[in-house]
Write a structure and sequence with these properties.
Radius of gyration of chain C: 26 Å
Number of strands of chain B: 12
Oligomer: heterotrimer
Shape of chain C: globular
Mean pLDDT of chain C: 83
Strand content of chain B: 5-15%
Low-confidence stretches of chain B: 1-9
Mean pLDDT of chain B: 84
Largest sheet of chain B: 5 strands, antiparallel
Chains: A mainly alpha (362), B alpha+beta (476), C alpha/beta (380)
Distance between the termini of chain B: 37 Å
Structural class of chain C: alpha/beta
Strand content of chain C: 25-35%
Number of helices of chain C: 12
Number of helices of chain B: 15
Structural class of chain B: alpha+beta
Number of strands of chain C: 13
Radius of gyration of chain B: 29 Å
Order of helices and strands of chain C: HEEEHEEHHEHHHEEEHEEEHHHHE
Strand order of the largest sheet of chain B: 1-2-4-5-3
């Protein structure tokens, strides 16, 4: 890759990776914790925290141009511990892939295919993703670029169609707030921004060393995701109300289902949202899938082969079939959060500290 | 090429060698005249050389001179013939090619050596450059390429009056040599692109090429793909437009079809007509052609997934009337769709194969007799007939036939996936097809440009066409 | 070669699998409306009426119709709804499908016995039910309501839903109460009213409304159509209709004003710890029907009298509804919601005691009419 790449593909990569399950489940999670109509403030706060964390990751990667986190870990903390850290990161990417596709399978099962086994639903998804991943990173980026306008278009359409259903009373009061609850909400909203950590993987292909472009890229990506989330929060609260959000499993889809235009050619619009949303799930899966494969290949020093690809796919598929039901799935989500803490904060921090030691030694 | 036949054991006289090469064919005529101490042998292929021309341009001037009493040396020959195209052939192995082009070959022999000249005396039955049958245009130029490469070059020159237009001649084929011309505009087409085309042409190892379609398959790099890697057209305007955009055209002798490389999906959905009208209607037509392409691929699949998987997504009144119309249809809608699709494809092929007057009868029989009776006897539902025929009409509206063929093929893939997993299966199929399209390169150029890689600036000449000052043509 | 084998086997896999969810549309028992009811006498206390579409009897297509109704009602009883739905399979070959459900009719009997929350929990859980289903209550049996021959629409359930579409033309018609709204009200723990339907001379007719209490989630009272008008004025739902000035509250003969535009603002005001609700109604109207001969609309000041009388009529209507609600201690007037928005601190402190506060809440009503015209001609 050339060093002087246009930043648009990277921005699109981040946005497509970050938007995923969060847009469907986050309103419920946040409503249970925060429970006030201005809970979208939590999303903004979560976005800010994510942005700071992303900048921290960048500070780490800046020192090692054209290297991924998988390359620098063994260099910094020693071969075996480094490999262990890599493995944790790979586990994290696999777990998050499994989690998102399982949530998607639940939704597909609820709203589209009632009787089809989840195994089949997931298998075809993983297989098609495998095909995309096998074409390499540059093609993945092309793929994301192709679908990006489409995703935005569906979200925009859904917003326009839902505006009619908003009841402003649900959104008020805006300014009266319980600050502590809002801060507690950040804990869950923050996780809906994960995806930016793939900066540590992308840095292997793109020379991301200068502050200005990277801050621009991260700012635009996290900022626009934040905007989309806030928009959907406002739509969700406005259409469904806070109390209702707490009890609906997939609020955004129910919101889309509440749209009905009598006598119009298309009366029902949840399909529109599901289409756009499954695309975002696919793009997120692709990004993590690729990272997992790259991580494994770098750790065990093998080439990116079809076999490796298939093994990762199989792992993701198997892991995604482990939870027996939706309650169990959501409880796995909490474990996943610990793993995210480890990969987003603990590992980079450790590497960061070691990087000073190494630097001093030089 | 045919050098091996000129072995040591072959006859010593050049004309004898050539005759042997043509296996003493009847139509290879030889005429020897003595000209003031010079033996002049004329060789020509009887049917493709014009005897009148030979008489007028070669024989009569030479014979007038022979009556005078001057000494003629072989190198004077070109001056003596009042015809522009007299070529000196130094490589004797190319003599046969000149003969086959309709040239008359003159062998002037003085005591020491043979001087070989060829004079263009071509006589051939040619089609006039009519409007291509499968690419009609509304207001653009109505000429079309014909089977003769020289005339095609002339047509292109007429459309592109610039000194930058270059033709680069290549010869392909072991048994039968076909001349292929790499055409480009110097300064517009990138050097790497020209090199890549040149390289692929020279790498061809084949006995013969019968048509541009064969050439296309020989130089493409994705034989498993259904999508055309090179665009083909019979319209000089289209080629001229492509050349102006920096693309390269490949002309094949004996084929009215010209190949254009590289191509993109975007380009295949455009017609030159788009540029001849005002930009707002032209943009709408562009949008329409994207829309029809989408419909021709997705409509049957979408219909199947709605009618047999996601009933809840159909508007209520439509759902009620659909369930009424499908009442009593013996097949599941998936089978019904496959049957109808197959019928339409058969009708279409039959229409193409038959001579035109009968062809229209087939479509009448197909549409009215089969369609009407199938519906009224309750074998298929009226809605299905509507969906399938609308799809077929949409696929007719696609400007490029190769693309239309490709989309027809993948339509079945979508139909199949939709019949198993409904809308979800359709979406997965879309993922797979787009991954394929993303992966596809046409001469190192991404196929999905300008959508992936995303070039917002080029969108103004993609699914819309902004007015000229803004939407000025962008290169590839 | 390897690839070929792989492709062959994956294709095999696809063909081996059935199309799990594939289900032809004509094999579905599309259901347009459901009615829930309660039987005291029997052991199976619940009964449920499903209104199926009978596609064969729909007229207007080329296949001859047998002339029957395009719908069929099947009423079955059981101890829970899911069981009843499954029992439908005993009588009809088509599995019921609720994705096109239009309306749901509950009965007074049922809501007196069972809390609404438990009743609809099944329907909320199932993904086939949409949030846009219209909900009604009736004093008659729900099976009877669904059996009334429709006059304009094809299906009774559709006609039922369409009736509430006129809410912008008449003060007596409430806006459609959607299933999603019911769920919202229940989770919010608020009282609310359900539009009532009844049978009048063999035709279906919208009546007043049934009041659902937030505590028991059962029906506790009824509102007449006139009271619906008052409720609509209070909750800012008026978008059309008329204000009739009767003979008895004016010196002149009666007159009817048509509402062109109307809006109500609810303003909870906190003064020295005492909450007051201020209702401000602003409306512009037009003289639609006039029985008074002496009135000359070309003379300035003709509207003053009318304006005052009209304002009085509306104010009385509103006061009447507020007094009913306060008497019942049920806040279906959305005063609580507005207090929580405008006075969040007060609400935070007192919302547990809201029932008591509400019943004694002072309400001031300020109605302001603007008469904009009298139409195109005045022959008086």
């Amino acid at each position: 890759m050339q060093t002087n790449q246009h930043s648009l593909p990277i921005i699109i990569f981040f946005i497509s990776t970050i938007i995923g399950v969060g847009i469907v489940t986050l309103p419920r999670e946040t409503a249970t914790i925060v429970g006030q109509p201005n809970m979208w403030i939590s999303v903004i706060l979560g976005g800010i925290v994510a942005f700071i964390n992303a900048l921290f990751l960048f500070m780490l990667m800046k020192k090692y141009p054209l290297k991924t986190v998988f390359d620098i870990a063994p260099e910094l903390v020693g071969k075996w511990i480094g490999k262990l850290l890599n493995l944790i990161f790979v586990c994290y990417t696999i777990a998050i892939s499994a989690y998102i596709i399982r949530t998607m399978a639940e939704i597909v099962n609820y709203y589209l295919l009632d009787k089809t086994p989840k195994f089949v639903v997931l298998l075809v998804l993983v297989l098609s993703c495998m095909y995309l991943v096998s074409t390499g990173l540059s093609n993945i980026l092309l793929f994301l670029q192709l679908y990006f306008p489409l995703i935005l278009l569906t979200f925009l359409l859904l917003t326009l169609l839902s505006i009619k259903n908003i009841e402003p009373t649900h959104l008020r009061p805006i300014l009266y707030m319980d600050g502590i609850d809002l801060l507690r909400g950040v804990n869950s909203t923050f996780f809906s921004f994960v995806g930016y950590e793939l900066l540590m993987v992308l840095s292997g292909q793109y020379r991301l060393t200068r502050w200005k472009p990277v801050v621009f890229i991260l700012g635009i990506s996290i900022g626009s995701v934040c905007f989309i989330y806030v928009l959907f929060f406002i739509l969700n609260i406005g259409v469904l109300s806070i109390e209702e959000l707490k009890v609906i499993t997939f609020p955004t889809i129910e919101m889309a289902k509440a749209i009905e235009f009598q006598g119009f050619f298309f009366e029902r619009f949840e399909l529109l949202f599901l289409f756009g949303w499954i695309i975002t799930i696919f793009t997120t899966l692709t990004a993590y899938y690729y990272s997992a494969m790259l991580g494994v290949c770098k750790t065990v020093n093998c080439k990116k082969s079809l076999l490796m690809n298939a093994i990762i796919g199989l792992l993701i598929l198997t892991l995604s079939l482990v939870p027996s039901g939706i309650t169990e799935l959501f409880s796995y989500g909490t474990y996943l959060n610990y793993l995210s803490y480890a990969s987003l904060i603990a590992i980079p921090l450790l590497l960061f500290l070691f990087s000073f030691r190494k630097g001093a030694m030089k | 090429m045919k050098r091996r036949r000129f072995g040591r054991s072959s006859p010593t006289l050049l004309e004898e060698q050539i005759k042997l090469e043509f296996h003493n064919s009847e139509d290879l005529k030889q005429k020897t005249i003595q000209l003031n101490g010079l033996t002049l042998t004329l060789l020509y292929l009887d049917d493709i050389s014009d005897r009148m021309v030979i008489q007028k341009t070669i024989l009569s001037p030479l014979l007038t001179i022979s009556s005078e009493d001057t000494k003629i040396i072989p190198t004077d020959i070109p001056d003596l013939i009042p015809m522009a195209a007299v070529n000196n052939i130094s490589d004797h192995s190319t003599i046969s090619r000149h003969l086959m082009d309709g040239c008359t070959v003159l062998i002037a022999r003085d005591t020491t050596e043979d001087h070989v000249y060829s004079v263009k005396t071509t006589y051939s039955v040619k089609r006039s450059p009519d409007e291509p049958v499968n690419e009609p245009t509304i207001s653009g130029p109505r000429d079309g390429f014909i089977e003769c490469i020289q005339d095609n070059k002339a047509l292109l020159r007429a459309h592109l009056k610039t000194s930058d237009l270059l033709f680069e001649q290549h010869f392909v084929g072991k048994d039968v040599v076909t001349s292929i011309s790499i055409t480009y505009l110097q300064g517009k087409a990138s050097e790497t692109l020209i090199n890549e085309v040149r390289e692929r042409i020279t790498q061809i190892e084949v006995d013969y090429i019968t048509d541009a379609g064969v050439l296309e398959q020989l130089i493409e790099r994705n034989p498993l793909s259904v999508f055309p890697e090179l665009a083909s057209t019979q319209h000089p305007t289209k080629v001229a437009n492509a050349l102006l955009e920096g693309r390269v055209a490949l002309m094949t002798d004996g084929s009215p079809t010209v190949l254009i490389a590289p191509t993109t999906l975007n380009m295949l959905l455009q017609t030159p007509d788009d540029y001849y009208f005002k930009w707002i209607p032209a943009s709408l037509i562009r949008l329409l052609s994207y829309f029809t392409a989408l419909i021709s691929v997705l409509l049957p699949a979408a219909y199947i997934s709605l009618i047999s998987f996601h009933h809840g997504l159909i508007p209520t009144s439509l759902a009620v009337s659909l369930s009424k119309t499908r009442e009593g249809v013996p097949f599941p809608s998936v089978i019904e769709a496959f049957i109808m699709e197959l019928t339409i494809e058969i009708l279409r092929e039959a229409g193409v194969r038959l001579p035109k007057p009968i062809g229209s009868t087939v479509s009448i029989v197909g549409a009215i007799v089969i369609g009407e009776t199938a519906v009224s006897s309750g074998i298929v539902s009226p809605m299905m007939v509507m969906v399938i025929s609308f799809t077929a009409i949409c696929s007719f509206a696609i400007p490029n036939y190769q693309l239309s063929l490709a989309l027809r093929t993948i339509r079945f893939f979508f139909l199949f996936s939709a019949s198993i997993l409904g809308v979800y299966g359709m979406l997965i199929a879309i993922f797979i097809v787009t991954t394929h399209l993303i992966k596809l390169r046409s001469f190192s150029n991404p196929y999905m440009e300008p959508f992936a890689p995303i070039h917002f600036k080029r969108w103004k000449d993609s699914f819309i066409r902004l007015y000229y000052r803004v939407g000025k043509r962008t290169g590839i | 070669m390897k690839k070929g084998v792989l492709i062959f086997f994956s294709l095999q896999l696809l063909f081996l699998t059935a199309c799990w969810d594939s289900n032809e549309i004509e094999d579905l028992g599309m259901i347009m409306g459901i009615g829930l009811d309660y039987n005291e006498s029997e052991e199976d206390v619940f009964s449920m009426t499903n209104q199926y579409v009978v596609p064969n009897n729909i007229e207007g297509t080329q296949f001859g119709s047998s002339g029957g109704d395009p719908y069929q009602n099947i009423t079955l009883t059981g101890s829970n709804f899911f069981q009843i739905i499954r029992e439908n399979s005993l009588e009809t070959d088509r599995p019921p499908n609720y994705t096109h459900l239009k309306s749901m009719v509950l009965t007074e009997r049922l809501l007196k016995e069972e809390p609404l929350k438990q009743l609809i929990s099944f329907f909320l859980r199932d993904h086939e039910f949409r949030r846009t289903v219209a909900v009604f209550i009736t004093k008659e049996s729900s099976a009877d309501i669904l059996a009334v021959e429709p006059t304009k629409e094809m299906f009774p359930a559709v006609q039922l839903k369409e009736l509430t579409q006129n809410h912008d033309r008449s003060l007596y018609v409430q806006d459609t109460l959607k299933f999603g709204e019911v769920s919202k009200k229940i989770t919010e723990g608020a009282s609310f009213v359900i539009p009532e339907v009844g049978i009048n001379k063999g035709r279906i007719r919208l009546l007043g409304a049934g009041i659902i209490s937030d505590k028991s989630e059962q029906i506790v009272g009824w509102l007449t159509p006139e009271e619906i008008a008052g409720l609509k004025w209070i909750t800012n739902e008026v978008s059309g209709g008329l204000v009739a000035i009767k003979k008895e509250n004016s010196e002149a003969d009666q007159a009817v004003l048509e509402i062109m535009k109307a809006s109500t603002s609810i303003e909870p005001v906190l003064k020295e710890g005492q909450l007051t609700i201020q209702l401000k109604v602003k409306s512009s109207l037009r003289l639609a029907e006039d029985w008074e001969i002496k009135r000359d609309v070309f003379q300035e000041g003709w509207e003053k009298e009318l304006k005052k009388q009209g304002e009085q009529v509306v104010k009385e209507e509103m006061e009447h509804v507020i007094s009913i609600a306060q008497e019942q201690k049920l806040d279906y007037l959305e005063f609580g919601t507005w207090t929580s928005i405008k006075q969040p601190a007060y609400w935070q402190k007192h919302h547990k005691d809201w029932e008591r506060i509400f019943s004694q809440l002072p309400v001031t009503i300020d109605v302001d009419f603007t008469l904009t015209g009298y139409g195109t001609q005045d022959i008086n």
